Amino acid sequence: MEAMRRTIWGMLAVLFLPAVTACTVAVEDPDYVPPGPLPPMEQLEQAPLSDPQDFSSGEDVLSFITQDRTVACSLTAARGAHLNLPYRQNSFSDAENNKLATVPVAHCELAEYPKPVAGDITDDCAGTGLGYLGGAALLTPDIAKYGECRSGVTQMEATYGPNGSKTGPLAELPVLAEGQNLERNGLRCSAYNGGVACGNVSAGIGFFVSGQRYELISARPGSSPAGPSEPSKTP
Asked: pLDDT tens across 88-142, in order?
């Protein structure tokens, strides 16, 4: 009888042991630090490309808005200072501009935005030195810049700013989800890290914009990215 009991207990132990050893308990590492977002140019180089057909606005233009409706961008073309933007009145197609070279560009507008730092102001606004405001970024194959001469708000600010209408052409743009990447004529834009990065990856030139900060990446000697800035008030 005693031998039988030992046999039964031995069999139960054999059955029970694998169940115990198969269980694992995940213990959170208190020293683990999750990796931060990639630098903008690495994000543009590594993120997989999305199907451009889903973002085509016609006339060889790709347009999108971020999921949180803070940034809208187009991969499009410019003739001089005239941008081909489907959601803004422009003179790109005027006959008098046909003589100008057509250049691929990426253009972004923001609903809330930092002010440009003094070293990034690239225009004297018709000699007045006034009216150079943040809220827009432009990339050509050779240069990235932040800010523009204008009076009033950006169209994104009019649509999704504090007093925005939430209606109009920008409200109809397709969403580029976080981490997605688009390319047109050698320029790329990616929605990530709470904003948008656009760049000419082969030249190492680009920008990152969000409601809290912007960064200009330039291959030119002596240039430096702008640090975090406070969002501006509605002009």
From this structure: 877 777 888 888 899 999 999 999 999 999 999 999 999 998 999 999 999 999 9
| Number of neighbours of residue 216 by Cβ within 10 angstroms | 24
- Enumerate residues 6+ apart whose C-beta is below 8 A from 220: 143
Cα 196 from Cα 215, distance rounded (Å): 11
Residues counted in the chain: 235
Distance between first and last Cα of the chain: 94
Tell me if residue 64 falls in helix, strand or coil: strand
CA atoms within 13 A on the CB side of 44: 25
Cα-atom radius of gyration of the chain, to the nearest Å?
A: 26
What is the rounded distance in angstroms from the CA atom of residue 36 to the CA atom of residue 187?
24
User: What contacts 159, CB < 8 A, 6 or more positions away?
Assistant: 111, 165, 166, 167, 168, 170, 171
User: In whole angstroms, what is the distance from residue 142 CA to residue 54 CA?
Assistant: 27
Q: Counting Cβ atoms within 10 Å, is residue 10 exposed (0-12), middle (13-18) or buried (19+)?
A: exposed
Taking only the tens place, the pLDDT of each residue in 218-229 is 874 544 444 444
Cα distance between residue 60 and residue 156, in whole Å:
22
Nearest-angstrom CA–CA distance, 41 and 199: 7
Q: Which pair of structure tokens corresponds to residue 225?
A: 């990215």
Q: What's the rounded Cα separation, in Å, for the pair 115 and 95?
A: 35
